[in-house]
Description:
CATH architecture of the largest domain: 3-Layer(aba) Sandwich
Distance between the termini: 44 Å
Helix content: 25-40%
Strand content: 5-15%
Number of helices: 14
Shape: globular
Number of strands: 15
Radius of gyration: 21 Å
CATH superfamily of the largest domain: Type I PLP-dependent aspartate aminotransferase-like (Major domain)
Number of domains: 2
Largest sheet: 7 strands, mixed
Amino acid sequence: MTSQFDHRYDRRNTESxxxxxxxxxxxxxxxxxxxxxxxxxxxxxxxxxVEHPIYGxxxxxxxxxxxxxxxxxxxxxxxxxxxxxxxxxxxxIAFNLATQALSQPGGSLVFLTPVYMxxxxxxxxxxxxxxxxxxxxxxxxxxxxxxxxxxxxIAQRPSLFLLCNPHNPVGRVFTRAELERITEICQRFNVxxxxxxxxxxxxxxxxxxxxxxxxxxxxxANTITLMAPSKTFxxxxxxxxxxxxxxxELRKSFNNARHGxxxxxxxMGMIAARAAYAEGQDWLAELLTYLEGNRDFLVxxxxxxxxxxxxxxxxxxxxxxxxxRAYNLEPTSCEYLVKHARVGLNDGKEFGTAxxxxxxxxxxxxxxxxxxxxxxxxxxxxxxxxx
Length: 387
């Protein structure tokens, strides 16, 4: 059956960063931005608001907080009070604010690598020392936490542990047992956690996202959770996210770190978020089915058509982390594929030294686009000699 996600939209005539970074003959499969239309309820809500010709400073969209609360209860069984939700214009801004709120210059920040590129700017922005712990990868490509190195890093009592879960780019959805072990170590050394959970709603069959702060009231009191509708409902250009902070003192410190920046989310972003959370659940269910189909198609293609490549099977998110080191592509895997395949990906080195030789591929696109991109890559790599 044809899905609503099979339609190919021309995005080059819009303001799309994704589609206008590369020359027109390069197929963009890089930044975390889906090539799918938003839920119809979002379009309806935005059209209704746009009909009023004045777009002034906005208070919180009526019903938005309640829609967020219902979403968290429905997906995670997590009861969050309204005052614990702090609206923000973006998750990257929020984890920078969280770090500055919880640290003093001269301290340190710990996170797991390879990881989402903006993590590497956070310590510098806050005057901290950056401490990274590389994830371990087994012979099947599965990533796990190096517990010995992680505990050693946390034992140094850094100002903050910055977590990405589901993990971008490797696609891990950390299990409840893993999260309990992470939080036990952080609690033991009195290290607060900021958890970037922006991809939390995009989890595949056999896996379940557990918000760190939902594990216990004690862990919640030591945690700032960051979420957004942007990845889930494909509205990243509308500037709406939120922090969930149950600890009143932590919440006060977070708000004080704004240094006078009083505005939260974007007006249109709040309208879109309320509509998406309240009326977008059927759309989200269909999206997850389609994305999982794309993921499985991609995994099979890599296995059967690109035998020297290795790929971690994503448990969540719509980004594939592909190991191309066996091809010895120069000067980098990404540059080689832009030149020879005319496909634009994220180069693994952007995610830290642990990512050198990898590429990140966005498979949130019509399946015909995914097939086209993969065929271009296959043709570019089929005659690369083994070394």
